[in-house]
Amino acid sequence: MASDKKQGPIRYGMVGGGQGAFIGGVHRIAARMDGEFVLVAGALSSNPERAKASAEELGLDPERSYASYAEMAKAEAGRPDGIEAVSIVTPNNHHFPAAKAFLEAGIHVICDKPLATTLAEAKKLAALVEKTGKLFVLTHNYTAYPMVRQAHEMVARGMLGDIRLVQVEYPQDWLTEDVSASGNKQASWRSDPKQAGAGGATGDIGTHAYNLARFVTGLELDSLAADLDAFVPGRLLDDNLNVLLRFKAKGKAPAAKGMLWASQVAPGHENGLKLRVYGSKGGLEWVQADPNYLWHTPFGEPKRLLTRGGAGALASANRLTRIPAGHPEGYLEGFANIYREAAAAIRASRNGRKPPKGVLFPTVEDGVEGMAFIEACVKSSKRNGAWTKL
Questions:
Q1: Is the Cβ–Cβ distance between 321 and 145 less than 8 Å?
Q2: Is 83 helix (H, G, I), strand (E, B) or coil?
Q3: What is the C-alpha separation between 244 and 224, in angstroms, rounded?
Q4: Torsion angle of alpha carbons 26, 30, 36, 38, nearest 10°?
Q5: Exposed, middle or buried: residue 354 (CB in 10 Å: 0-12, 13-18, 19+)?
Q6: Which terminus, N or C, of the chain has the lesser number of Cβ atoms within 10 Å?
Q7: Per-residue pLDDT tens for 239-266?
Q8: pTM (2 decimals)?
Q9: Tens digit of pLDDT for each residue in 183-193?
Q10: What is the DSSP pairing of strand 163-171 with strand 274-279?
Q11: For residues 64 and 40, is the Cβ–Cβ distance under 8 A?
């Protein structure tokens, strides 16, 4: 294989994502959707037999199937055809040490959220990203839906006026019962503080809701008051959270207020992510289950439906639109858009350039903020919902 990293697909490896995993397969589909990446190496499981079997299924060279991420980082950094980027799709407790190993080896990192298990770890990663100059992409995939980019630009253009109210919710029902007791792997690690960190639903989906609200509005959070519950008996981490939000004031406008609800014990909800934003000139509403639609209501005027690729779609939304209007795009394409944005940045980095104008993806700083949100929620809830600064 040629050693010239300035040409051809971006060689990447994966940590985690072996047999029995969910999110690893999603990342692999997203990475290959545009032909920008090729998977050439992996440390796919902490179980050696499962790692080997997973590598065989994916057609990896046995010599590039590794027993650990540490071995993989060292070996790949020393190869002339080594990986340029790594995708980390493990339980949360491996995000920090794996990302650290690859950053120190001079390899770009694409990591699932949340960034780490503690705010202290997150800050260390941010410092390491700055020191190494490597790219760090956090896969908050909902920020790459075209109509979310549309909402982001509409707010930035002042089309809603001064933002006053933000309401975001993310209910699911899959943890209504103790499914971890029956051996559900995805539930087990998410309910284990040693693997998931201090937040259960807060870290798993609450960070998605919070990141979406921040991305669309551009507001910076000042403080929050959180009420976290673990409704299922014996569960060690929260499965439901209600959070009041106070944002920092922008200019002369009054500070915006918000509410965030996330739950994994809400029967009837599969993946109910919804965002509503209200300003002095109008409001927006976006629902993940119908991601190609964005409702815009200018104050005093009829409600308007904006569609992906349709009339009124802005350039920032259209650059992430893959197929004609009226055809559904969603979850996988959102992930693929993150990978496509990452590819543009990595290709620019190959030649010592900055990413092209318009390229946008969640960074390590977004990850630090997500961890600050988790820790503030846990702290506030332990103090009976006391207002807590981030």
A1: no
A2: coil
A3: 6
A4: 10
A5: exposed
A6: N
A7: 999 999 999 998 889 999 999 999 999 9
A8: 0.96
A9: 898 999 999 99
A10: antiparallel
A11: yes
